Amino acid sequence: MAFRKMVETVPVEKREVLSDKLIDLVLTSKNDEKMPAGLANTLLYHWQRNLLASDAGLVSLLEAAFLLEPDKTIEVLEQEFQLVGTVKAVKEVFMKAEK
Amino acid sequence: MINVVKFGIEFVPREPYWKIIYYAIQAERRGFDYLWITDHFNNRNVYVTLAATAIYTNKITFGPGVTNPYLVNPVVTAQAVATLNEIAPGRVVLGIGAGDKTTLDCVGVEMQKPLTAVQESIEIVRRMMNGESVVFEGDVFTMAGAKFLFKPRGKIPVYVGAQGPKMLELAGKIGEGVLINACHPKDVGYAVDCVKRGVSESGKKLTDVDIAAYTSFSVHEDLKKATKASVPVVAYIVAGSPSVVLERHGIDLKKAEEIREALKAGEWGRAFGLVSSEMIEAFSVCGTPDMCIERINQLLKSGISQFVVGSPIGPNVRKAIDLIGEKVIPHF
Hints:
The structure holds two protein chains of two kinds. By secondary structure, chain A is mostly helical. Chain A has helices at 2-8, 15-28, 37-48, 55-68, 70-80, 84-98. Chain A contains six helices and no strands. The longest helix of chain A has 15 residues, at 84-98. By secondary structure, chain B is α/β, with parallel strands linked by helices. Chain B folds into two domains: 6-219 and 307-331, Alpha-Beta Barrel (TIM Barrel); 222-287, no CATH class. Chain B is 49% helix and 17% strand. Chain B contains 14 helices and eleven strands. In chain B, α1 (17-29) links the parallel β1 (6-11) and β2. At the A-B interface, α2 and α3 of A face α1 and α14 of B.
């Protein structure tokens, strides 16, 4: 639910490029062991249907990117895409989860 | 003249299944015809990875590249490929070779009579796939009525993984295909001549056998980046190559020995630093898309019908697959 809200803050014209960046982060990450099997299968489901830039695809990509490479993901969202609102939403989710 | 070359891609399941399957879907979309998954006991299981590949892809042909008859009994290999062929009918191939001595030594398995072992195992796999009750008295394998309790479907083309002259000849004689571990036209030309001898002995036509160059490949628009990615793989190839092959390429045997020692000692920096441009030229297909196209053309003239893109593929695997799909495959 929280990741879906984050995706809503991403402008439509940036979704394709963002999904490209995020999948790169996920595929080149050395933190493979942090990927839950269920999430991996969801990603493959969307990739098989070419839907990684869709709302549902981006939700799973963001979740995976934050799990595997949180710092790099924040950097990409803030610096390359100027998605400050998205990052703020993410941080709020993480703060709530920590409480 | 129109070249009819097929493109294959190799993945090593040291990577988790979801990365391999991502790349498999991408490779299929980008025009690759074949997908080969390596089989080593110390990586993830080849057939589990292939089963996932079967489910997530639609048209790419795939198989182990290559399994061996020492760690996997041929009846189990037959069972695995027969089951895969139920999931993806007509898309399964079997790559089989003698295996590599270092890996077998690790588990205390002796590489006995490699030619005979490969030949016998292929015969057993084929007979099992025919639904026979296999009674077999070979020099390496014995079967006393091995038979599936289900009806296997279809035929599985067998590709023999080969490097030495005798195995290459055997591959030409009994295989539907051959996987040649070589990147340079000199090595591939030599290997194809050996395969031809086997083909003519069997009475087949050369076009009946799919001759694949299974290469170490690295592509990037920036030559330096492509080269940097290929260096570690080339270091291992040099370390594992026999003197006769190194001499064929004018490579200093002392330098090769130094690389071998450095790798054994875990001194990666020293080992990789010793890799020369001659070594990269001899043991990889590496460079910009145009440079790779030129080398593939040379290999085609040497007689191959399939070009397999193997590790490292490029500094970034996903981007390299896109680059191959956009700039290399359409050229042929």
